[in-house]
Amino acid sequence: MYLRAGMKRGLATATRLVASTTPASVWLAAFVQTVFLIALWATDGYDAARTREWLRILLTYATVAALFGGIELAFGRRPRAALGATLFVYTLFVSVNFARFETAGSFDYGFAHENARELLTPLGRAIVTSNVKPIEVVLLFAVPLGLVLGLVRARRNPSPLASVEPSTRRLALVVSAAIVIGLPAARITTHESLTGFGASAIRFWAETRAAEAAVRGAAYPFVHDLAPSEQARKLAGTDAPRPHVIILFLESWSARYATPIFDARRREGLTYDHFYGNSVQSARGHYATLCSLLPMYRAKESIDLPNNRWHCLPQVLADAGYRTMFQSATDEPEFDRAREFFGKIGFAEIEFEDPNNRGRQPLVWGAGLQDDAFYRRLFARIDRAIAENPDTPVFAVGANASNHYPFDKKPGFVPASGYPTKYQRNYLASLHDADAWLATFFEELERRPALRDAIVVLVGDHSFPADEHGIHFNGLGAYDEAFRTAFMLRWPGHVAPAVVSDEAASQIDIAPTLVDLLQLRGRSHFVGRSLVAKDDVRPPPSPLVQPYGCVRPAAVRLPLQLIRHESAQQEQLYDLARDPDEKDDRIGDPTLVTELPALREAIGKIPTSQALVRANRVWPPSP
């Protein structure tokens, strides 16, 4: 009894001591951190660790206490300096947490670095603000910032740490610094967003510099000779063919859902049940498809590498005598520096919608011109090109825009019914509209005799998650739905219809397939494989890149998908045949251990590729 009473008195004394010595800024920051954790959990942006989540939460609050308590310890005897430093750090603390909430947990330095410039464009601002609700701004940004006024009043009194012995204060400051700096340095992740953002910045540049140093002075390992495969020669005929070639990029197209028009049409050509975009944004999908290179996870090729040398598919076909043209349904050529990049990789003619039409033409909404109207415009332009030079084959690439995030901008928009979340209802309604408008594309194609022998490729520029794992933003997660997208290649009379269900393929395989069918020779830096050059060798895994949300590279070789969480140094393995919804992590299954080396090797190609691309070691300079 006396022992129990003594323990109670000791606990009460310790509680009073902690309460009396803990600065108000620590209590406020801990409260705000709790609010954001609950908000992220409620909106599926909460990124739980596989094991010991309780420890991660404990370290989160330890980091908050060390961050704001450290300021008090460092400036406690200088109230104005302490107040100024606290207000500055607290404002950053709230801002980064709010950004994480609005991006479903994917906001980090890489996300900010690669997308900050796009905020200067109308489309970029529309994407960022599309789902920001006024109530969220008030409750999760304005109110937390307003609460800091209490700190200003509290600073009229001395800091509770000011009376602590100097030696004790110095020791506590060292411990605080060790927590704030040491945990991120040791790659121990917490839910505290500000130190996490700083750690992601250090990791971003350290990995970039290390990768660049590793390949500095290297040769050009991607460069190789093009040689038509025996199978392609049989399909194309003996003479080198020069049919027109059309590629249509389908915006944000997930292949996990029924799309009646596309599903029927894809069976008219070569198609894959498991086809993957190599990353998660349009610019990265365009790059992977047209250049047959793995997209970077630290920076964007179109924005950050203006001086790089490329020898992508448009240039290869231009050298083969093709007239190359790119047409976009969007009205923002500066978004992702698209016009500049497309010109650099070999498109002679580049056309975007006139921004003056926005607000004046009813079919211009959301990200650009409505798909059916865009298809008519695309084919009219192809008609003009053929009429002007009947003997010159055309390579035409179109990129539609209607099925664009946030998927609810169509005039008179009505969500789909029968799905459990609003994000699924919005996405599926938008996807079904986009699929219906594809009927116009095929109608325009088939009523033109000049295009009867054309090679036509339809491919998703990237996929998009729709709450399959509680994720509805393409900057988070690396499950199958983040990457699996549409693909079909149609060349009537040459490529027989075939649905491939036992192999996976990806965007980097499209350019090698086309130059193989066209029987082109020369040199290229394409890293994919020709999908018509069949042999007895099992295809290599397809590498996939999720550049945001702590970076998650992945690789697929059916039936398995391996996902690697870089910052947590964890892996997940799923059997897509038995477990298409990826609920059962089989990374510890001893029966699958022989499959892991090839998947890990494919993931290992991603940083190597990035290093070579950043070092401009893709294509040699002209002699």
Protein architecture, described:
- With 623 residues, the chain is of the alpha/beta class.
- The protein has two domains: 17-210, no CATH class; 225-533, Alkaline Phosphatase, subunit A.
- It has helices at residues 2-21, 24-42, 53-75, 79-102, 109-115, 122-129, 134-147, 149-154, 166-185, 193-215, 230-236, 260-266, 282-291, 301-304, 313-319, 338-344, 371-388, 422-446, 510-517, 596-614, and strands spanning 224-226, 245-250, 270-276, 323-328, 349-351, 364-365, 368-369, 394-399, 455-460, 484-485, 487-490, 498-506, 522-524, 542-546, 552-557, 560-565, 570-575.
- The strands form four sheets. Strands 2, 3, 4, 5, 8, 9, 10, 11 and 12 form a nine-stranded mixed sheet that branches.
- A hairpin with a 2-residue loop joins strand 6 (364-365) and strand 7 (368-369).
- Helix 3 runs antiparallel to helix 4 (79-102), helix 10 (193-215) crosses helix 20 (596-614) and helix 17 (371-388) packs parallel to helix 18 (422-446).
- The chain is globular.
- The model is unreliable at 6-19 (pLDDT under 50).
